Amino acid sequence: MPAATELAFETVIGLEVHAQLLTRSKMYCACSADYADAPPNSHVCPVCLGLPGALPVINRAAIEICLRTGLALNCLVPAYCKLDRKNYVYPDLPKGYQISQYDLPLCVSGYLLFESGGQARRGGITRVHIEEDTGRLLHRTDLDGGEVSLVDLNRSGVPLMEIVGDPDLRSPEEARDELVALRQLLRSIGASTGNLEEGAFRCDANLSTRATDGSVVGGKVEIKNMNSFRAVERALRFEEHRQRELLARGASVPQETRGWAEARGVTVSQRTKEQAHDYRYFPEPDLPPLSISREQVAAVRASLPELPAQRRARFVTQFGMSDTEAALLTSEPRIADFFEETLGPNATHADARVVANWTVNDLLGLQRERGLPPDELPITAAQLKELVAAIQAGELTARAAKELLPRLERAESPRAAAARLNLLSLDDEAALAAAVRETMAVCPEAVADYRKGKTVAIGRLLGETIKRTGGRASPDRVRRLLERALHEE
Ligand code: ZN
Ligand code: MN
To answer: From ligand 2's centre to the CA of 131, what distance in Å?
Structure first.
């Protein structure tokens, strides 16, 4: 029982994501937006180098992708929005400002439905706006041992969108689950690769702590430098714990920005409120405000594909599966496509159950074992379709199919492979009868038990007979033969 004076705390988390948009060119110039493999400073022009007099032009495709995202996130799209300069000085920002959006963003007031801890959740989306990326700094030691910093501006001006979530998350797990769902959504609508390792999907979070009775409220702490979903959850858990400890012993939690130090597993103070940037936002004078027509909004909305949450809900109703199973099968669009392709039209719930079991238990297991990417499976839909059909036709036992699966070559017919590996069901009546006779001869106790009325003893006889056929006998058929033999005499 906690002491009466002990405070109960509540955690408040909000997410902020920067995602790189899947466009060919940069946000305000015609340079290629692909900076992954290009030699440093090869995809640059006066605009993204920030040279005096160069004028930006808005990338239409980037606006459209941002709109798609906003609509997929159930946002409102105001009829009018504008671009603003966010001013700060850093060597990777040649213009001395970023062209972003401040008080009038492209999309506002949406939400994302996701699942966390088996519960359906709704995460509010404050806004989605467009902005541009900065260049990259490379820190090196030169031949004399001196420290040098090199600037690569290929990434300067690459289209980004910033997605700001409402501070309505209550735990690190929930924050992680919403992020995973958001990445999935962006990938499903072709807005971004969502690749965390390559920096195409970057997440910051803010976390604050308050007493549930409202008597104590800590400052808002912004956390940066989290480079994986695991890092997000770990960093937030650390921060939640740190803040609760401070408040529990009567100390305060100052408002500040902290960085996640992955190797040490702690967050470290980067700057306090006093050192916070003043970005001196003002409207971008070189670009006109944007009017978004209702027709354009309707057209983009109509072009949206089925979203992950919708597909998940459809799987539950159409195939009669659990939320968890539907979530697993729709976590990657290509896995969901595979599942539906294997099933084909007019599938029954029973068919869906069989294909879902093979996909979730066997194929995803094999995928992990082989270290395949999360959206790639070891066999094709046509192969699984044939495998399931062969089992249903009694040509292959489930046990033999499981043995066959990891030995199946790419695009090889499962029936042909089963024949090659001598795994096809034993169809020879005489051979099956011989296996039954042998079994009864070597297991007289089980035979006696069964005949005395202990019918469960048939299990042992069944197992033994199947073993004698090298696992190739259909259990149903062996059971029928055994029962007949046991009742004879
Ligand atoms: Zn350029
Ligand atoms: Mn930003």
So the answer is: 7
The region, left, alpha or beta by phi > 0 then psi within -120 to 50, assigned to residue 10 is beta
Return the residue matching tokens 């976390």: 207
pLDDT band at 3 (very low <50, low <70, confident <90, very high): very low
Helix (H, G, I), strand (E, B) or coil at 192: coil
Tell me which long-range contacts 45-50 makes (C-beta under 8 A, separation of at least 24): 47/157, 48/94, 48/153, 48/156, 48/157, 49/94, 49/153, 49/156, 50/93, 50/94, 50/95, 50/96, 50/156
Helix ranges, 163-218 (H): 172-188
Measured in Å, residue 155 CA sits from the centre of ligand 1 at: 9
Ligand 1 center to 44 CA (angstroms): 4
Measure 322 CA to ligand 2 centroid, in angstroms: 38
C-alpha 15 to ligand 1 mean position (Å): 30
End-to-end CA distance of the chain: 70
pLDDT tens digits along 316-370: 999 999 888 898 898 888 899 999 999 998 889 999 999 999 999 999 999 999 9
